[in-house]
Write a structure and sequence with these properties.
Elements: H1 27-39, H2 42-61, H3 73-134, H4 139-152, H5 165-179
């Protein structure tokens, strides 16, 4: 049987029914950053130079379309307005970049501290392993100790009678290790 009402999630609050506008507090900052980046490009300088050249040419040569005579006061006003807005926008963009750089620097410091801690831990573990390996009895150590003990045993005179199975086993055990 299909549900008549859409499924509501109980772990999230209900949305208000009134029409509300949500404003992103970072929207203006992102816009100013994009604008500041555009103001620093060659494309912007090209188009601005082209507009200024056309402005001056029209105001000098076209007598009929002169809206800004020779001292070009309107053009100066436009440049002043542009500068008045561009400077704060550029500063805002630089502040945002400084914030991003600060966060990246903090992350780099944290990563470097973690790497240093990991390296110190691994160095301690390696030192502990070296100490543990130094205390382990190796095959060569056991052979030399057995050879020393064998040399310390009193020598038995061998009888000319046939050896028994026990003495053969004992002698062959010592002889196997003595040859290697």
């Amino acid at each position: 049987m299909p549900e008549l009402l859409p499924r509501r999630r109980l772990d999230q609050p209900r949305r208000p029914r009134a029409l509300r506008f949500e404003v992103d507090p970072e929207a203006f900052a992102r816009f100013s950053e994009r604008l500041a980046r555009f103001l620093g490009t060659g494309k912007f300088l090209f188009w601005q130079t082209l507009v200024v050249l056309i402005w001056i040419t029209v105001n000098l040569l076209a007598v009929r379309y002169r809206w800004d005579p020779y001292p070009f006061i309107l053009l100066n006003l436009a440049f002043s307005t542009q500068a008045a807005y561009a400077a704060p926008l550029i500063l805002l963009a630089q502040n945002r970049q400084d914030d991003r750089d600060r966060v990246a620097l903090e992350e780099d410091r944290a990563r470097a501290a973690q790497t240093k801690a990991d390296t110190e831990f691994l160095a301690r573990e390696l030192a502990a392993l070296r100490l543990a390996i130094g205390e382990v009895a190796t095959r060569d150590y056991l052979r030399t100790e057995l050879d020393r003990l064998r040399a310390d045993l009193p020598a038995k005179p061998r009888s000319r009678s046939r050896p028994t199975a026990d003495t053969v086993r004992a002698d062959s055990r010592w002889d196997d290790h003595a040859g290697s």
